[in-house]
């Protein structure tokens, strides 16, 4: 390998700097972070999408149809069990997509790859970086929910044209869980600690937010629990799209997308703020 | 001042650009800047000014606060006290704008390992929102400048340490910076690569670039710097032109020898005979004197076999000013 130690270096043109600010505006800086992730992780899109897409399909087949066959005398929100599960599967896909990205992914970029340390030396601020991360989480959720939605559509569980709005709810759901995962990541000192988050926070959310059984069947004293969690509102928003208001779990389900939006903004703002302190 | 042939090379004079801009405000104005990490005060009230067009070298032992100070100047780390202006702006208030006008070579080589050389530069450019044909031409120009034009399709992990370092420098120049901050640009590199990098840095300086250089290599500072500051435990304990720093702190000549070789000699010189100044760092003993003659005399007198008489250097000053603390 020849190192041109003694070769004269080509002359660089002296740059002429225009007057005025040289920093890109904030929206471009956030977009740049997003582009970076698209560029870097785009190569692994298929690998990343595989669990997010196949797990819900396996659950639909094994639980929705397999176990559901034993439950066909019963109605779940006025639906057969497999159809009932569709909305929940979309919600879980988005939740896990965002949680892996904003917990493990962010932690690895923060601690091991030191990606942010390189980025923070450019015009990007800490806020730009983590807003971009959140945007990326939302984007992944939108994409993966769209794919899962397309599969569910083949099984006849998505009503059209409402189903076309699945990616929007997918974006909100993933961004909300991105924010929540940021909050967790900001406290964590070792990747092993994410086990608590996944086991104690996320797993119960799946079981008790209306994926497995309708929340109206919870004991009276427990009904408030899912209502306070983002996953319930995400699943109910998906249910509005794929099944329609007739199959909603609560009479006021039309508010769920708005509540999800509110939770997304609140968790996103809190998560970004927490992570800004960690970098 | 007349120089003996064996004296260290004179410090580079400020370039034409620097004198033309003599009236312009300094690129870095740092007054009493403080940074704490918990109970530790990493930077403890540093005052330094870097005029446009010069190369300022920051020396200091490990943990002295060099990186912390350059991160504050680079608008990456908020300061806990003092006044700081970079290119006339307050990095605390105009973080993004300051960083848009700086080029930074971090102490560590940080790249996206999954992308090739060219893609890495493109992504980095995007953070400055630089793209399009003019930017792609700039990328090629810089790859040629650092001698990596044939490596643009290579993966980051296929590059040698020296190539990665040169790529860091190319990357730092993508946005036509007005101040280049280099944190140990040549640590761990072989002499050829170091000289190649120095050649590029000298050329940048000649084109009017202001450079803040952090280094552990005295020869690097002597080769490149117009001014040298020595940072020790968060304090700037000395600052001057490299040659003036030596002249101010030490007699002109030094006798360096193995302290274990002749205990008699050590004993004699410890008494600082004939106006000499004795110092010891590890196994090496040093006797400084304004004249060469008595030093050569002692070589003969004590029959020192591994001794050497040479002009005092920046390294001697560095050891003198920071060395005792290292022995603590
Ligand atoms: N993020 C941080 N958190 C806590 N302490 C820190 C942090 N960064 C630096 N320090 C401490 O501040 C002191 C100065 O560190 P700094 O990295 O600035 O030293 P340095 O002069 O660059 O050293 P080196 O020559 O080894 O690179 C050290 O004691 C270091 O442990
Ligand atoms: Mg350092």
Would you kindly provide a written description of the structure presented here, covering whatever features stand out?
- The complex is a heterodimer of chains A (279) and B (328).
- Chain A is mainly alpha-helical and 279 residues long.
- Helices cover 65% and strands 0% of the residues of chain A.
- Chain A has one domain.
- Chain A contains ten helices and no strands.
- In chain A, helix 2 crosses helix 5.
- The radius of gyration of chain A is 22 Å and the shape is elongated.
- The N terminus of chain A is likely disordered.
- Chain B is an alpha/beta fold and 328 residues long.
- In chain B, the strands form three sheets. A six-stranded mixed β-sheet of chain B has the order 5-6-7-3-8-9, with helices on both faces. In chain B, strands 11-12-10-13 form a four-stranded antiparallel β-sheet, sandwiched between helices.
- Bound molecules: adenosine-5'-triphosphate (ATP) and magnesium ion (MG).
- Magnesium ion (MG) binds next to helix 2 of chain B.
Name the features.
heterodimer, A: 279 residues, mainly alpha, B: 328 residues, alpha/beta, six-stranded mixed β-sheet, four-stranded antiparallel β-sheet, 13 strands, 24% strand, disordered N terminus, binds adenosine-5'-triphosphate, binds magnesium ion
